[in-house]
Amino acid sequence: MKTATNNILRRFVPPYKAQMGLNIFFNLLSTILSLFSFAAIIPVLRILFGLTSLDVQRVDLGAVSGLQETIAALRTNMYCLLNEQIALHGSSYVLMWLGAFLVFMTGLKCGSSWLANYFMVPIRTGVLRDLRRQLYDKILSLPMGYFTEARRGDIISRMTNDVGEVEASIMSALDILFKDPVMILVYLVTLFVISWQLTLFVLLLMPIAVFFIGRLGRTLKKASTRGQEQNAEILSSIDETLLGLRVVKGFNAQHKLRERFDALINATRATFNRINRRYYLAHPLSEFLGTMLIALILWFGGLLILSDHATIDASTFIYYLVIFYSIINPSKDLSRAAYGIRKGQASLERIDAVLQTPSNILEPAQPLNLSSFESDISFHHVHFSYQPDREVLTDISFSLPKGKTVALVGQSGGGKTTITDLLPRFYDPTQGTITIDGNDIRRFATHDLRALMGIVCQEPVLFNDTVFNNITFGVDTTQPAPNGLTWQQAAEQAARIANAHEFIEAMPDGYNTIIGDRGSRLSGGQRQRLSIARAILKNPPILILDEATSALDSESEKLVQEALGHLMSERTTLVVAHRLSTIKHADLICVVHEGRIVERGTHDELLALGGYYTKLVQMQS
Question: Could you say which of 5, 212, 311, 444 would form a disulfide bridge with 370 (CB–CB 3.0 to 4.6 Å)?
């Protein structure tokens, strides 16, 4: 647990050193002030027990030496002052001022405690923000290959449930290191000063309590890890259900998904039953063990008071019990925080599995300048595999001159989309090179490389935002718009070229209309034309089209194809085509079959060969 605590504090707390220091200071001040407020109990008890009539003489502090003698002298002089005031003003008067002193010191103590928590708040919220930002930045920087293996529900669970567990764990760690130990240490020192014999007896009993509490805590980490994994499975199941709801209802498969979901939530319930039962055992177990300690202290303290050579009187012993009882609550909090640390450590390990995932898309130490595209794009004997034992692309070679169009055709699963994913470095080839103007693309910064490209996919990716913000998604609107236009004018111009302006204007709020989750308020053709408008506004010299019209009806296809014609004009285009009629005029058509380019040429040249391409054309005819 100590290692886990140090790890959490070392990683997340340093940016908040000032607040942390103030928190420690006010926690210490609050603890010291509580000792002074408790001290009012001793004279009150002496008055109530009738001990003020004892013949007590003042002690000259200059004549004593040593800590024990000095403390005894101070206590004796306090008793003398108490006797004098009672003799002058009476017991009721002294009790009133003792009560006022208790209220005043308690007020200072409560104020200090509030200030300690006041400075803890920005640490807690800041750490939560920092952790979410780290995770989000990491997800944005991870290569596409990571998301082919990971489930979206699992990633969402790590960013929500696991982050929440770590937040609670961090707060427990801060209490462990900066609050509870300070209180316990100050109280223990005070107990030693009051009676070292009694305190030593208590410390001999403490390891027994620590053993039982520690054994309970060690069982939590493993169960917590499994619980977070099950939460991730639930989120994944919900995500799959929402995405495939049309298919689920169409095939009347609700009962299958319901049975699978019931099994998941029942297993998760059983896991969290075990976790929470053990977690909630911490408090009563600590209280029971604390009560046992107090009973033993009462017995041993009674022996010290009633012995012939008493080292402590009754009123001081009650003060001792008050202080010791004040240790019990932070000790119980400490034990519960220890369980929280173990739960949080399991979640932190799941988060670290994402944060520490290495990226195989490495940035060059000294990237080449890539401000423009001048000559050509070339694939040189490119091989690629998602997994070492299965090659997806084999010996892919072709050249795409500036201003020309190369089309990739072939059966589904042949590797066409994978080829287009290699150009913007969503993946890197396992063998071979891809060059732009003769330079390996791995020598360019990925940001500069992708800045040259516009991508239009088969399934357009839109965001739950306004039409305007979706069109301007790929540009920096804090900079001036091109050609002296405003960004609103530039977005409208791009929409007109993409055949999207008319349906946008017909929407309730025009360009300020929210289009829904993934553009759910738009038709398929409208979504595709909006994504084309986004690419037009970016105005990239290199264009990647991945089956941009394959999922559209004939009318939408015509409008989108016309928009694509405007977009492709005078641009270097790599296009994946499902409908061969759309790429007849491509400068080069490459037929991809089982990861290889088996034919290449123009439309007429390939038809003359009578091979794979001819069969594809005949199938579509």
Answer: 444
Counting every residue written for the chain, the total comes to 621
Maximum alpha-carbon separation in the chain = 125
Backbone phi, psi, residue 458, to 5°: -60, -45
Give burial (CB, 10 Å; 0-12/13-18/19+) of 535: buried
One-letter amino acid for residue 544 of the chain: I
Average pLDDT over residues 458-482: 84
Q: Per residue, what are the HEC states of 322-389?
A: HHHHHHHHHHHHHHHHHHHHHHHHHHHHHHHHHHCCCCCCCCCCCCECCCCCCCEEEEEEEEECCECC
Q: Give me the sheet containing 596-601, strands edge to edge.
A: 453-456, 542-546, 572-576, 405-409, 588-593, 596-601
Q: Could you tell me the CA-to-CA distances from 596 to 22, 409, 416, 510, 592 in Å, in that order?
A: 66, 11, 10, 46, 5
- Integer Cα distance of 604 and 484 in angstroms: 44
Window from 4-13, 138-147, 188-197, 298-307 with minimum mean pLDDT:
4-13
- Give me the pLDDT at residue 575, please: 87
Q: Is 576 left (phi over 0), alpha (psi -120 to 50) or beta?
A: beta
Indicate the domain borders of the chain.
2-355, 376-620
Instruction: Give the Cα separation of 84 and 43 in Å (integer).
Output: 13
Is residue 567 within 8 Å of 399, Cβ to Cβ? Answer: no
Tokens of 173: 């760690």
Token couple for 225: 């890890």
Q: What backbone phi and psi angles, to 5 degrees, belong to 215?
A: -65, -35
Structure tokens at 366: 């000294």
pLDDT > 80? residue 404: yes
Quick check: do 2-355 and 376-620 share a fold?
A: no
The structure tokens 């000032």 sit at: 18
- Beta-bridge mates of residue 576: 408, 546
Token digits of residue 101: 């002193």
Residue holding tokens 């009347």? 252
Q: Which residue, chain included where needed, has tokens 């519960």?
A: 336
Q: What pLDDT band is residue 247 in, cutting at 50, 70 and 90?
A: low
What amino acid is encoded at 314 in this protein? Answer: A
At 531, the amino acid letter reads S
224 CB-near residues (< 8 Å, 6+ apart): 165, 275, 342, 343, 346, 347
pLDDT of residue 429: 92
Are the C-beta atoms of 376 and 400 separated by less than 8 Å?
yes
Dihedral angle at the C-alpha atoms of 15, 17, 23, 26, nearest 10 degrees? Answer: -160
pTM, whole model, 2 decimals?
0.69
Q: CATH homologous superfamily of domain 2-355?
A: ABC transporter type 1, transmembrane domain (1.20.1560.10)
Q: Does domain 376-620 have CATH number 3.40.30.10?
A: no
β 588-593/596-601 pair status? antiparallel
393-401 and 376-384 strand pairing: antiparallel
Alpha carbons 290 and 298: distance in angstroms, whole number: 12
Q: In whole angstroms, what is the distance from residue 351 CA to residue 353 CA? A: 5
